[in-house]
Amino acid sequence: MAIPIHNEDQIHKKSGGFKRFEKYLGEFVYGGIDGCVTTFAVVAGSVGAGLDSAIIIILGFANLLADGFAMSVGAYLSTKSEQDNYNKHKQVEYWEVENLPELEKEEIREIYAAKGFEGALLDQVVEVLTRDKEVWVNTMMKEELQMIKEERSPFWIGATTYMSFILIGVIPLFIYVVDYITPLDKNLFLIASILTAIGFLLIGWLKTYVNQTPILKGILETLVLGGIAAVVAYFVGDFLEQLIVG
User: Fold this and answer.
1) Contact 114, 144 (CB under 8 A)
2) pLDDT digits (tens), the chain, 246 positions
3) For residues 201 and 225, what is the distance between their CA atoms, to the nearest angstrom?
4) Helix (H, G, I), strand (E, B) or coil at 173
5) Which residues of 79-88 are buried (b: 16+ CB within 10 A; e: fewer)?
6) Domain residue extents for the chain
7) Closest CA to 175 of 165, 186, 162, 163
8) Which of 18, 116, 226, 230 has CB atoms 3.0–4.6 Å from 44's, for a disulfide?
């Protein structure tokens, strides 16, 4: 049975909305991984050093907000720089197409001759590609300079990275905040470790979607690396506490 047109439109709209989010899923995953690992490392190191819960909260949120902001700014500036560099080279290609058209046509010919085109077919390919300046320039950017334009927004790349860093990175601190508001007679570090492991599992699963790798491999990889970072931080904190405090 055919789907009514209005239902198809709704499906396309929903699909389009997901696609817009999907473009930034990589930034969400890696921002989340970094946030969870670094914040839990702060918690583990603080526990190893025998610091009070209030200090853990202060250090944890200071790290969360500052490191997350620095990471998001880095992601924004990196993407913006990449786009600016692309646009600069594209303007050069436009100038060459307008002022040195025969030379640029010969470059197109050489590029496609190297791909196996020859004779009348090669002449046709060159003629078609150089008929429109935009197509011509884009072809030169991709084939000659090996550059592809980053279509995504630098702002949203940075914002997604920051939001993910905060959302996932706050997981190790959650139980300490609860304990600060309502004291708990529990092993806070154990609970934080379990919650963090769940966060790693979630991010590991999302990472497999981004990288198209086996689910179990992605989850275990994220879990193991996060665990190693936590163990190192814990024992460094414990060592420094014994060294300094005695």
Assistant:
1) no
2) 344 444 444 434 444 444 666 788 889 988 988 888 888 888 888 888 888 889 999 999 999 999 999 999 999 999 999 999 999 999 999 999 999 999 999 999 999 999 999 999 999 999 999 999 999 999 999 999 999 988 899 999 999 999 999 999 999 999 999 999 998 888 998 999 899 888 888 888 887 877 777 888 877 887 787 778 777 777 777 776 677 765
3) 12
4) helix
5) bbeebeebee
6) 25-244
7) 186
8) 230
